[in-house]
């Protein structure tokens, strides 16, 4: 009997500790303005509203439409998969553009070419490396109304309505993770991929960097967007690389593409302001 009473007291004591701990933890999280679960943030515009013509680059063919199975594997229905060619002429150079948007499920693992292409039977010829893309920033300036925020902005003109809109650009340099693969059956056929992320208004090179930015405990909202460019082509010799031509094309195309993507993504300074106002209430 004494043993049963002692066990019962220990049970209720442990239960009380758990309840107090749970309540105390929730109170501490609220007091410190910590957000363990992030709220989703909608796109301002669908990704397929990105213009068909960006500088010299023009869309060729139709945008890819993924099957339900592929969408489930991708982890999002908000994506753009499009081919761009110089002057719309594939013989002058083609770049495959893939943009995917994630929010509300920040723990999703993005697809990266290191894994996907190897599974597809291609062989790695150049290991992953970070390449800083020197975008054309001649039209960039400090964000109006918040010059000390560190954000830059630029003006873009709608190709249909001719309306001019100010777009906030992501913080940080764009460092692209690049990899090169070849077809084992055709050693001179190369495929180069370069990708980076934009997470909560900042650039990130790897998926690990994305987690650091998107899981900032004080951010109430979170999103990330993967931008990937792919270039395929021939090299003269089996030891040659397609990496340098890829860098040139990526620099030119991304200079115009990044502002257009940011026009679709959430305006992060606005969401930062909302988070501060909500925390102050």
Description:
This protein has 281 residues and is of the alpha+beta class. The chain has two domains: 32 residues; 244 residues, no CATH class. Helix content is 31%, strand content 31%. A hairpin with a 6-residue loop joins strand 7 and strand 8.
Notable features of this structure?
single chain; 281 residues; alpha+beta; 2 domains; nine-stranded antiparallel β-sheet; three-stranded antiparallel β-sheet; 6 helices; 12 strands; globular
User: What radius of gyration results from the CA coordinates?
Assistant: 24 Å
Largest sheet: 9 strands, antiparallel
Compute the number of structural domains: 2
Order of helices and strands: HEEHEEHEEEEEEEHEHH
Q: Which regions have little confidence, pLDDT < 50, spanning 5+ residues?
A: 20-36
Q: What percent of residues adopt helix (DSSP H or I)?
A: 25-40%
Principal-axis shape equals: globular
Structural class by secondary-structure content: alpha+beta
Count the DSSP helices: 6
Distance between the termini: 53 Å
Strand content: 25-35%
Please count the beta strands (DSSP E, at least 2 residues each): 12
The average pLDDT score comes to 81
């Amino acid at each position: 009997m004494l043993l049963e009473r002692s066990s019962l007291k220990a049970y209720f004591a442990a239960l009380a500790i758990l309840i107090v701990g749970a309540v105390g933890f929730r109170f501490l999280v609220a007091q410190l303005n910590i957000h363990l679960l992030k709220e989703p943030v909608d796109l301002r515009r669908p990704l397929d509203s990105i213009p068909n013509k960006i500088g010299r680059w023009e869309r060729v063919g139709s945008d890819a439409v993924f099957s339900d199975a592929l969408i489930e594997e991708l982890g999002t229905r908000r994506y753009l998969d499009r081919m761009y060619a110089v002057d719309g002429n594939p013989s002058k150079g083609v770049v495959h553009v893939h943009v995917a948007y994630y929010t509300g499920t920040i723990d999703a693992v993005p697809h990266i070419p290191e894994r996907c292409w190897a599974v597809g039977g291609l062989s790695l010829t150049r290991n992953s490396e970070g390449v800083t893309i020197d975008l054309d920033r001649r039209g960039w300036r400090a964000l109006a109304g918040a010059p000390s925020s560190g954000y830059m902005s630029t003006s873009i003109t709608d190709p249909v309505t001719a309306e001019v809109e100010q777009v906030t650009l992501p913080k940080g340099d764009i460092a692209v993770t690049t990899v090169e693969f070849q077809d084992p059956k055709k050693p001179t056929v190369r495929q180069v991929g370069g990708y980076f992320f934009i997470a909560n208004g900042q650039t990130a090179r790897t998926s690990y960097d994305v987690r650091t930015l998107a899981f900032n405990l004080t951010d109430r909202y979170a999103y990330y967007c993967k931008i990937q460019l792919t270039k395929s082509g021939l090299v003269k010799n089996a030891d040659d690389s397609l990496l340098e031509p890829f860098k040139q094309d990526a620099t030119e195309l991304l200079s115009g593409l990044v502002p257009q993507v940011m026009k679709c993504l959430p305006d992060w300074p606005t969401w930062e302001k909302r988070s501060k106002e909500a925390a102050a209430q």
